[in-house]
Amino acid sequence: MIEKNYFELANEIIGRLKEFGPELSGCGKHESTGKILDLFHERGEKKGYFICPSKEVGNSEWLYDMIWFKNTEGGNKKDIMLKEVCLVLECEWSHCYSDVSYDFEKLLLANAPIKVMIFEEGKCKFKDICDKMKESIKNYRNGSPGIYILACYCGSSSEMKVLQLLPSN
Q: How many Cα atoms are found within 13 Å in the side-chain-facing hemisphere of 125?
């Protein structure tokens, strides 16, 4: 069961993503990814999470393009353990659905309450990609319940389209 605070956090993220499209206008793939990661880094820190990757701490990517996590408290570094992973994020700017799908399927494996996939609309349209992702979630047998946030940047309109998929009961 997903706690209420995660639903509230997901709604905050969705609101910000919907406003974010114009900030990506004219950006290349690497710059777009950097801006998205900066946005999520700032949000995660404000919520009290450690962020990976982190420029400040020197962490590189760990399993996903971004993770928000918390560790146990401990006076000795060797006694600190992973306590919670709140959010995992994948970004893929390829216009080829198989590339987007490859990164999306990593989210199926994640045991986190919020799973974010950010991609760019290309040959496949937002609705078609979302339909395929919904089918992937439905077909994957071993997934943990999570709130999926699918965000698609549409360069022609500088708009970020966002769809939230809630866990089924």
A: 2
Name residues whose C-beta falls within 8 Å of residue 28's C-beta, 6 or more positions apart in sequence.
none
pLDDT digit string (tens) for 143-154? Answer: 888 999 999 999
134, 148 contact by CB (below 8 A) = no
Domain count, the chain: 1
Q: What angle do CA 30, 31, 33 make, to 5 degrees?
A: 65
Over residues 1-23, the pLDDT tens digits come to: 788 999 999 999 999 999 999 99
Report residue 54 as tokens.
């982190």
Range of the structural domain that residue 106 is part of:
4-165
Q: What distance in Å separates the CA atoms of residue 152 and residue 162, rounded to the nearest whole number?
A: 6
Rounded CA-CA distance 7/94 in Å is 29
* pTM passes above 0.85: yes
| pLDDT band at residue 169 under the 50/70/90 scheme | very low
